[in-house]
User: Fold these one by one.
Assistant:
Number 1:
Amino acid sequence: MANRKSNIHSDEQEQYFKDRAGTDEARFHVVPHDEEGWAVKKEGQNDPEYTAESQSEAVEKAKSMAEEAGTMAILHNEDGKIDDLVNYEDK
C-alpha cells in the first residue's frame, strides 16, 4: 500500500512538473550533476540550462536566471534534498 501512495504522489509530482515545463512559471533547480559537478535545471527539462564545477557558482546562476524570469530558485544539497528556496515571484 505504501508503494501505491508513493506512485500516486510521484505521478502527481511528475504531472505538476510537466504542466510547468516551458512556461514562465517553471522554476530553476540547483542539483548535483554527475558530469560537471552541479547543474541548473529548469522544471520539466532533462538537460541542464547551465553546469558548474562548484555549487556556489550554480546557485548564483540559478538566482540570476530565476530573478530575470520572475520565478523561484530551488537549491538542493548533495543528497538531492531541498536546502533553500529563493523567491523572485511578484518582484
Number 2:
Amino acid sequence: MKRRNIQLFLLLGILALTSLFSCGVDRWPEYYKWTGRDLWIDSVMREEYLWFEDIPNTKDLNYFLEPDAFLKKIISPLDKGYSSVDTLYATPLPSYGFDYTLYSIVGNDTAFNALITYVIPGSPAAEVGLKRGEWIMKVNDDFITKKTEELLKEGENRKLLMGEYSTQENEAGETEGVITSYGEANLPAARPVEDVAIPAYDVLTGGVGYLAYNSFSTEDNSELLRLSQYYKENNVKEFVLDLRYNAGGAMDCVQLLATILAPADKLGSTLASLEYSLKQMSKDRELTFDDQLLQGGSNLNLSKVYILTSSTTAGAAEMLINCLKPYMTVVLVGATTKGENVATASFSSDKFQWVLRPVVCEVFNSEGKADYSTGFTADYAVNSLQDFAKVLPLGDPNEEMLSAALGIIDGSIVLPEPEPEPDPEPEPETQMKAVKSMKVKRTFRNGLIIK
C-alpha cells in the first residue's frame, strides 16, 4: 500500500509539472505546498550563488524533488559538493565517540583488530579511558567481523578486549610487530556526541607551542584568545598547528587565528579579499590582520608556522594556510589537503525549517592567489598510521606527525625536494593491511562559512 501511495504521488507530480502553465494559466499556487521548498531554494540560489549563470532554466527543473536532490540538479559543475542544504534543527547521531581503522588479523581473513585513531573528549569512549593508538581485539567476547563491526558504532554497553602494539624477535631472528591484550574496558551506551574544537594543546620542550584545532568555531574564540596569552607567557617561538581533523568553519575564526600567529609588523595588512558574483559585487571586501580582535589575547609574532595536514583538512583551514603564505613561512607536514577554495553563507527559512548554504564568493590571499583547488601538497609527507608504535594521543611528542614537525624544527629532519606522496594505505612491520576506516559524524560545519 505504501509503495502504491508513493507511485501515485510521483504520478501526480509528473502530471502537475506538465500542467503548471496549461492553457496559459499559472497554476503554481495550486501546487505550492509540494513545490514551496524547492522554489525557495531556487530563488536564493539565483540571487546569491557565485555561479548563478549555471543554474538551469526554470522550465527544465522538477520542483517536486526533496531539497538535497533538487540542489544537486541546479548546482554548477564547478561546485564540488561545497553547497549544501539541511534541516534547520539537525542533531548529532548517537555514537561511542571514537574513530577507528580495521586491520585483518594475520592468518585470519575474516577477523579484524580495530586501531583507535581518535577519541572525542567527553564521549563514552573517553569516559572509559580509550586512547588513540590502543586496539580493540574483541567485542562482547567475540572477534570483530564484518557482521559484528556494527557493535563498534552505536548501541548499548559493550565489553571490549583491549590490546597494545609492541615488537618482538621471531624464530628467524627478525623483528615483527604484535598486538597483545592487556585488559578489558566496559564501554558505556552510545549517545549523541559533539566533538570539541580544541582537543589538545601544550608547550613542549624547547618552547614549542602545540595546538590541535578541529574546527574554526566562533564559540571557542575566547578559548583561542586565552591560549594565545598562555603561549605568549611561555615565550613560545616555534608553533605547531594541528589541522589534520579540521574540515573548516567560520571565516571570522580564520581572521582571529591568523592575527594571533602573524608577524607583529604585518598587523593591519590585507589578509584576504572576497569576490562575489556579478549580482553581489557590492559585497566584495577585504579582511585584514586586525589587532582589535586580540582583546584578551596576544599576537605571537611568529615568522614560521608548522601545520599538520591530512585529506580532511579543508575550507577555512586551507584559507588560513593560503593567507599566511605571503607573510610567513608555512611548513606543511602530513598529506595533501582537500582543496576547497570558496566560501559559503547560510540562508534559513523558518517557514520550511531548512537552511541553505550556497557558495557565494571566492577567497584570495593578498597576492590574489587561490590556486589550491586540488589541495595543498605537504612539504614533508607523513602517513600518520605508518608506524603503529607512533599512533599516540594528540600532543604526544612521539606521535608520528608531531614528531616529524619537531624533527624539522630541531634540524634532525631535512625537508626534501617535492616528490609524490607515499601510498596512503599504511604498511607497517606487521604487514597488516587496513581494510576499513570509520569516523564519527562530526558536529562542526565543514568548508569556509561567512556569517
